[in-house]
Amino acid sequence: MVERRSAVIAADNVGTNGITQSRLYDLQRYVSEHMNTDMGKGVYLESTYKRDVQTAYANASNGDNPNGNIYKKAQEVCAPQFTHYSYAYLQCTTGELAKYPEGSNLISSANLPIADAYLHVFVSPLWSPDFAGWSVLVFVVILIMIIVRLTSVGVLKLLLRHHYKSI
To answer: What is the pLDDT of residue 68?
Structure first.
């Protein structure tokens, strides 16, 4: 299971959705066919989530501001005047940004994906028809036989004592 979980994370880091979905399916199939496979907190597709958040921010920043990208405009004006970052560069940039009307907040206008949608948790079955499952079944049958045997021996002893008590 560790290899399959690592394969899902590696595919997520590469960024190919088809391969990631295939690896998730392999992991789900493995977990659903084997007893006692614990996913812990599940598999979180962090790289896919980050890519989708970046896409949402990019979509939100496209065309919402009628002035275009004001940060780029401010940098084009101030960067040629200064060779390195300084307080004067900061004042210049702040002054240039103040020339443009305040637009909507990018963070609030972005339609961000729900993080829980990127968490995948699979549950293993209580019993499966593999070696471990058959072993558990044989153990339970033998345990029931032992309990029945001990109970019947105890009942027989009580009956025999009660029957031969008068003799």
So the answer is: 63
